Amino acid sequence: LAKGDGRFTFRFYTRELTAAATDRLQMETALRKAIDNNELSLNYQPIVDPDSGQAQHIEALLRWHNPYLGQVPPDRFIPLAEATSLILPIGEWVLKKACQDMRQLIDEGHPLKRVSVNISSLQVQRCDLPVLVGRILRETGLSPEHLDLEITETVLMDEPDKVLESLNQLKALGVTLTVDDFGTGYSSLSYLKRFPIDTLKIDQSFVRDIPHDQDDEAIAKAIIAMARSLRLGIIAEGVETQQQRSFLMQEDCERAQGYFYSRPVPFTKLLEYLTDKQTV
Ligand code: C2E
Ligand code: MG
Ligand code: MG
Ligand code: MG
C-alpha cells in the first residue's frame, strides 16, 4: 500500500484513504478468497406461469456470506467483482453450480424447462464464453436446452461484432438467451433484429408501480405486445402484488417472477416450492 516505508508515509496514506476505500479494499481481499473458503452459494427464484404459479424456469442468484462482513448483497459485491475481474472465476463457479443443480432437478423429474444464469459483460468480452459453457455442459451432463443466459442491454452495446459472434456460438450450442432488465439500458431496438435473443425480461422498475402508474402500465403493455409480435418469450420481473399478477394475466404475459410468488431461496427450499406447486 504505502510503498516507501517508515511510519510517516504510512500515516500519510492512512489519512488519505477514505473510509470507503478501506472498506472496498477489505471487501476485495475477502472476495478474492470467497470461492476457496466456500462462502458463495446460489439462491433460486422460480419463474412461473402468472396464473397457476407453477415454476417453468428458475433464476440462479448469487449470494456471498463472509464471516466478518456478513451477508453482502450482490448490488455491492458484483460491481466490485467486475472492476477487479474476479467476476471471471466467480462467474465460472456460478455457471457450474447452477448446471449441477439443474441436472439434479431434471434427474429427479421436476418439469422445469431451464435455469437462467446472469452473465456479466466482462464474461462476454474477456473469456471465451462459448468454450466455457460448452465445457461446463459436458462436465455436468446438463442438456443445453436447459440453460439460459441472462445478459443486459449494455452487453449488446460494446463491440457488437465480437458480441454477435459470441452469442451466435452460444446459440449454436443450444442454450437460450434472455435480455435482463429490458428497457433500462439502451435506446435503440435494432439489436433485437441483429442478435439471436429468445426472451425479454421486463425490468422491475416498470412493474413496481403498476397499477398506480399509467405510464408504467403503458410501457409494460407495449413491451409484452412487442415481444409477442417478434415471437420472443416474455417475463415480467419484480411482481409483488395480486394487482400486478392480474394485470399480467390480463395482458397475457407468458411468465412472471417476483416476491408475490417466491423470493429467491436456497436449493432445499426450492425443492419444497416445486413439490408444493407441482403436485396440486
Ligand atoms: P437481476 O438479475 O435483475 O435479478 C433480480 C433481482 O431482483 C434479484 O436481486 C432478486 O432478488 C430481486 N427480486 C426478485 N423479485 C423481486 C420482487 O418482487 N421485488 C423486488 N424488490 N426485488 C425482487 P439480487 O439477488 O439482489 O440480485 C441483484 C442483481 O445482482 C441481479 O439483478 C444481477 O444483476 C446481479 N447478480 C446476481 N447474481 C449474479 C450472478 O451470479 N452473476 C452476475 N454477473 N450478476 C448477478
Ligand atoms: Mg437476472
Ligand atoms: Mg433484472
Ligand atoms: Mg438487475
From TrEMBL:
Superkingdom, taxonomy of origin: Bacteria
Domain EAL span(s) in chain numbering: 24-278
Name of the protein in question: cyclic-guanylate-specific phosphodiesterase
Gene source species: Amphritea balenae
